[in-house]
Design a protein that fits this description.
The structure holds 2 protein chains of 2 kinds. By secondary structure, chain A is mainly α. Chain A has one domain. Chain A has helices spanning 3-23, 25-52, 61-82, 88-94, 97-102, 107-112, 119-137, 145-167, 170-173, 179-191, 201-210, 218-224, 235-257. The longest helix of chain A has 28 residues, at 25-52. Chain A is globular. The two termini of chain A are 30 Å apart. Chain B is an all-alpha fold. Helix content of chain B is 73%, strand content 2%. Chain B has 13 helices and 2 strands. A two-stranded antiparallel ribbon of chain B has the order 1-2. In chain B, strand 1 and strand 2 form a beta hairpin. The chains are: A mainly alpha, B mainly alpha.
């Protein structure tokens, strides 16, 4: 299927949601505020923590802010551009995937563009604020900005692809709630906002090489702040490609296993 | 009417234990959070102490947080929100059952399904990590009593969060905001004692603090018996207060329901 056609379908579907967002302004404000709330609390957590300890594993307040900021940006980009993936579970149970299969566009794009997570506006705004504040405070040079931009794009891709792949598990486990994707986000929130050195080696291996969540925020920030050598940056686009391939593969397998509702 | 409450709670309980994979992974997540918390705080405290918590006290604090978190996050938030989002609430309005009371029965029934895993997980963590014991048998009893209020408090907070679905198309973002508020202001994320004084004031003025800080403070003897009883009274007051606030907000928001085709 031509990429241009598929991309046209994707953007038209998202544009339709933007029109519906404008119709329901209360929804937008409530969700954007919700997205901002958990980022403000994340900032508060770091501020309180660093009022009591000078550093964690050699990482300071501003460096840790960069970790949280980049993770929020990745999550916000996922919610803005591909939030519909969370609908996979309910679509499988209700047989709604049927419609998508009959349409001349990739199913994964149709499902991904079926919703916009409005909390993304709050997440992105606060995420960028934390990243920029941390960047300046940590004294990261301007020369890193192009690499930073690439890291943001890759972070968004890895986050979106991993969440989509984990949502696709619902093709097999048949539950309206995407428990695996939900747990992934929760685990990231718990562990990937801290330096990897705090955790046992097994956790580091999993986060770097099994489910490469560390390449979303920990690796780029560690390189920018001198905690890891620049060679690690090679892994960031590689992880993005691997994650996208994984998501496409799992979704394809899921569609093969899909047997509609009522069977 | 009490029979109806029990029936709804039983259905919700059975629904929860029917999805074994969801249940299993929820428990796994709770254990992971506990291990992550232990790794971080062990690193930070070392042989010293932070905010009056030495390593043994912090282990007890984190295990109490695991216990309350397992209970608090096992309710039926999604089912409640789903009734509003998919319009089922319009059918509920025709039933001779109070919406809030029915949802409370279902919610607490769902939470009950997590009790065995919460107790087993807590016992395993206690055996494995050897945390500080309760400061006295009375403190242990009062801690257990204070934990009972987690049930109505968790429902009250979740119910208020789900009522936002009258104005939104999704619950996901609302739930994350609610979970963050509970995690931060309860002290699960970072003990309230480490916060600046003004933020401690804010935390103690909110209901979330009773999810972790209250039972942990009673258990570790950071408050005396009178203080413990005062905290338990505050929990009871919040349970009632959240119920009343939920009812008032429901009255306003239910007017948003539009039944098409009638």
């Amino acid at each position: 299927m031509p990429i241009r056609h598929a991309s046209g379908v994707y953007w038209r579907a998202l544009a339709a949601h933007v029109r519906s967002v404008i119709e329901y302004p209360a929804d937008l404000w409530i969700m954007a505020t919700a997205g901002a709330v958990w980022n403000v609390l994340q900032f508060a957590f770091l501020a309180v923590l660093f009022a009591n300890v000078p550093h964690i594993e050699g990482w300071g307040f501003h460096e840790m802010l960069m970790l949280s900021g980049l993770l929020s940006i990745a999550g916000g980009a996922n919610a803005l551009c591909f939030d519909g993936a969370w609908n996979t579970g309910s679509m499988v149970i209700k047989g709604d995937i049927d419609y998508r299969i009959t349409r001349p566009a990739p199913v994964i794009l149709q499902v991904g563009s079926s919703h916009i997570g409005l909390q993304s506006f709050g997440e992105l705004a606060l995420g960028f604020a934390m990243l920029v504040y941390g960047w300046i405070g940590a004294g990261v040079g301007m020369a890193w900005i192009p690499v930073g931009a690439l890291a943001i794009v890759c972070a968004a891709l890895i986050q979106t692809a991993l969440v989509t792949a984990f949502c696709a598990v619902n093709f097999w486990i048949k539950s309206p709630m995407s428990i695996f994707a939900f747990l992934l986000i929760q685990l990231q929130g718990g562990a990937m906002k801290l330096p990897l050195g705090v955790f046992p080696a097994a956790v580091r291996v999993v986060a770097l090489f099994i489910v490469p969540v560390a390449f979303i925020n920990v690796v780029p920030v560690a390189v920018f702040t001198g905690h890891m050598t620049a060679w690690w940056l090679v892994g960031v686009p590689l992880a993005a490609v691997a994650a996208v391939a994984l998501a496409a593969g799992v979704y394809r397998l899921g569609l093969r296993a899909y047997d509609s509702a009522g069977h | 009417m009490a029979n109806l409450d029990v029936a709804l709670a039983t259905i919700s309980f059975k629904r929860k234990i029917a999805y074994k994979s969801t249940w299993f992974f929820s428990v796994l997540f709770g254990e992971w959070s506990l291990l992550a918390g232990l790794a971080v705080w062990n690193h930070l405290i070392g042989d010293g102490e932070i905010g009056g918590y030495d390593w043994d006290a912090m282990k007890a604090y984190l295990i109490i947080g695991f216990l309350t978190g397992t209970l608090a996050w096992a309710g039926s938030d999604w089912e409640m929100a789903g009734r509003i989002l998919d319009g089922m609430v319009a059918i509920d309005l025709t039933k001779p059952v109070d919406f809030q009371r029915a949802r409370a029965a279902e919610y607490i029934g769902g939470m009950t399904a997590s009790i065995p895993s919460a107790i087993l997980g807590t016992a395993a963590a206690a055996l494995l990590f050897r945390p500080a014991g309760p400061v006295s048998p009375l403190a242990a009893a009062l801690t257990a009593f204070s934990l009972l209020f987690i049930f109505p408090l968790a429902f009250g907070i979740s119910y208020l969060a789900t009522l936002a679905c009258f104005l939104t198309q999704r619950f996901l973002g609302i739930q994350w905001a609610k979970d963050s508020m509970v995690a931060f202001f309860s002290g699960m994320m970072i003990p309230v004692a480490l916060m600046p004084v003004w933020l401690q004031g804010v935390a103690w003025a909110l209901p979330f603090v009773h999810f972790t800080t209250t039972p942990a403070s009673i258990y570790l003897g950071r408050v005396d018996t009178a203080g413990a009883l005062g905290l338990i009274a505050a929990e009871a007051a919040w349970a009632v207060g959240l119920w009343v606030i939920g009812r008032l907000i429901w009255r306003r928001l239910v007017k948003k329901v539009t039944v098409h085709g009638g």
